[in-house]
Queue: 2 jobs
Job 1
Amino acid sequence: MTTIVITGLGATTPLGGDVPSTWEAMLAGRSGVRQIQAEWAAELPVRIAGQVLVDPSERIDRVKARRLDRSTQLALIAAQEAWEDAGFTWEHPGAVDPQRLIVSVASGIGGLHSLLDNWDTHKEKGYRRVSPFTIPMLMANAPAANVGLAVGAKAGVHAPVSACASSNEAISLAIDRLKLGRADIAVVGGTESTIHPLPIAAFAQMQALSKRNDEPERASRPWDRGRDGFVLAEGAAVLVVETLEHALARGARIYATLAGSGITSDSHDIVQPEPSGEGQAGAVLKALADSGLSASDIKHVNAHGTSTPQGDLTEAQSIKMALGTGPIVTSTKSMTGHLLGGAGSLETLACVLALRDRLVPPTINLDDPEPGLPIDIAATVRELPAGDIAAVNNSFGFGGHNVAVIVTSEHATR
Amino acid sequence: MATTEEIRAKLAELVNDIAGTPVEKVQLDKSFVDDLDVDSLAMVEIIVGCEEAFSVTIPDEESKNLVTVGDAVAYIEAHQA
């Protein structure tokens, strides 16, 4: 049985331009949701979002940036931090055997800015002004492919698309590939950048977004009775994962074990979760089986918890169904907003740090919890017990995708 | 009518903007692809940039013949309005 460990972390989020600043803000219970200052926001019903705190232009060279969609730029920033955190040099392929290195980096939607900006150009100035880079910028595998170029991955570059479950699915895919022996090391994660009038209008028309425009920091409030939808956010999170054998051979620092994952599909509705929570619970149960763990090993759940009226209730039921009432549950989306395809990997990364520091970040804005919730939600920072413990990260996506990933404190460098 | 030097200077600006190549490297004898870090897609952007800057039309089949900066300058000189 192959053991997989996590050896590098990287992120750029509404809370910070890297992992330490993001994690510090999570433990402090800070919100990264702000009003959108762009002029176009004025005429929209939703004028708030989780915008990255550090603009990618501060990190990516101008000439390079003009052929990369913003979602890919964010992915590259997170991947560089993770790759260097794992002890490698960025853009110097060959540090690991390229034939044993894979990339699995997802985006839920793809290069939306590139697509829409070039369509605007086409309409205003004609086809001749459309950028020849449009296709390699908008394709949903562009973040993965560009990360693959930077690290020199030759054993496969993957970009599974499953809406808001995409980056958890990317992690799951890499787990399977490593367990099958197809590679020794993987760069995994997800990214998204969709803060643009069209997706905001479209999500708002679905009645999916919070309209708490005057109190952006209080808008994302999972399980609170005053919740009125999710908050759109952008950002990326990337992890370096490898077989225990590979990590030990190169003397890598180990954060945690990536124990396993589980995937189910609701086959119920294109956007609504199956209301009993059976499909979601099924993903967690499969992840437990994949990890060789039992429900009592799980001490913490980073929930999908998007702050939608129905979604939060269904998930509370499904967590109880799969794991009982023991784990301390949180939704870090209360602070970051919803990174869509970037959410799963960011929240798996948060689980890793929660296990390391034995601290569960709070679900902020839980002022008036739904009555009778069957789970233990951390409204403030909570401590986790000592010893070898495990955490589940849930991610669900439009289309009925349910993906649970489990990390444990086993093999962590003390 | 732009002079040879004005056209070269504007081309240098475009190449710098699109490919990041230092403007002083953009001389008439230099090949876009071999000397100036311009790949095939960046070349398309440079061609379109020239069309915009000099009000010329450079058909796709013509653009294949513009190998050096000098080729492009000569084409623009011959075709500008």
Job 2
Amino acid sequence: MKHEIYILHGGLLSTIQDRGRFGFMKVGVSPAGAMDLFSLSIANLLVGNNLGEAVLETMYAGVQIEFGCDETIAITGASSAAYINESEVPLWQSLEVKKGDVLHIKSPSTGIFNYIAFSRGIAIPKIMGSKSTHLRSGIGGWKGRAIQAGDAIPLGEKMKSSPDLMLRKEKRPVYTKEKTLRVVLGPQDDHFTEEGVQTFLRSPYTITAQSDRMGYRLEGPPITHKTSADVISDGSAHGSIQVPGSAQPIVLLSDRGTTGGYAKIATLIAEDICTLSQMTPGSTVFFTTVTEQEANRLFRQFITETEKSLTSIRDPKQKQLVITVAGKEYSIKIKKLD
Amino acid sequence: MLYSQAVFRTAGDRSIVMEFANAIDPYVLSKIRSMAAAVEDQPDLFIEEILPTYCSLQFFFCPLLTTPDVLRNKLREIEKSLPPSSSVRHRRVEIPILYGGDAGADLPFVAKHNGLSQKEVIDIHSHGDYLVYMLGFTPGFAYMGGMDKRISTPRLMQPRIKIPAGSCGIAGDQTGIYPIDSPGGWQLIGKTPLKLFDPFSDHPVLLQAGDKICFVPIDEDEFHHIIHLTEAGIYIPSISEEQTP
């Protein structure tokens, strides 16, 4: 039995991602990492991994994977129909798959990215401390590129038995076509006219099709600069919103460059970066400000709630036994009748 | 120019910006470097990553372990304790360049644009004293200052789709080297056999902010010899340490 997954269909854009590559921004290396870090973390927790283990991030649909070994997996993120062989399987919970099973993810009704976590972990080397793929510089992940049909990707040796967990239904994100996103103003809100800042905070902005893992380009009423859009190049934080000369905002996401020369009006808070990343082109966003102190409180709350949001999927009235008869394993479910 | 004390800027829920000046200047660079060095020694600040740029330091911190207010107060204390003009160590890095020919297809244009011979362009470029202000744009790309304006040349009208790693170019008053294959519009005057970015190395990036750079002209034989040694993992670039008073 080979500890591998075989890619039958790579889908639109599927890459290996973890939380990102940190410590090298000062030498120009983009952090990359999962677009929706909430879904990444939950997928990992559902298979008993550490939060930041590398997973497969898929975009929209089409990915088909055959398992070369038994494995515990979990799928989170976009509301896609996922099938193992012919049966539809639930998202946001631990799943057991057998050698030879084929997982197929079909078009999501809402959202963009799905995350598939493997309890064995993806057995590829870390490049500069991370397994994340950065497509533009061709580093990390699987040969520095998106996965494609024919790839055989190694998993770790040790499978964790299914923790039988699910994300509580009320904690599951609902992806919609309109959302208000929270930002902290700055670092260069003083580069914009008072009117420009008010326009930014009061107007709807539409996500355009010119959006990718580097950033989402938005379209809406022009955000006016005091003099020019240019600043002396400085750092780009995850979720910072730059406004070039076009006066249209661009939200900088996972694959962003580390530095840039356009004024940045505001920065999204962590939770809302996850929300935005799952919004499809054509969706509308509004921005509202929170103070830095409030943003800090919201971050702590987001992290602690994520950790408390899982629950057992095991029916307390039901027990599962594995028995061996004549060398063959049988799984038996025993349920107490009321 | 340099502010009497740094200005803090908000940058979301996990980072803050500390801005020291509003102009590009070697003195600002040494201030930034001495502040970064002082902060790096202090684990109790819960800073995860420091990003130095032309005029500022961006601090990425763990929001579970500290708050922006606490961090700003501590950074302000450190700033006050810095000596007024500290002498900073820097490295001098020699970068061999094969000028002209296929390696530097735009050398004839750069010469013609400035009314110089190709040899004069090479002499001016390789006699300059360059300072790395920051890295960004792509992995290992160094923003350098100090190019002689006599060889300034505007970017190409039509950018190239793919420029090979190691290519050395001029764009306006700037010069730089492409660390990875990338599209770009710089006028190419030569190529270095050195790897400016190698993700598989223990030291993935050759240059760092604060480095002084000089370009050394080499011929085609030396170029291939250095490539050969680099691939074998036995080439040691010429890097020396100096102290700026």
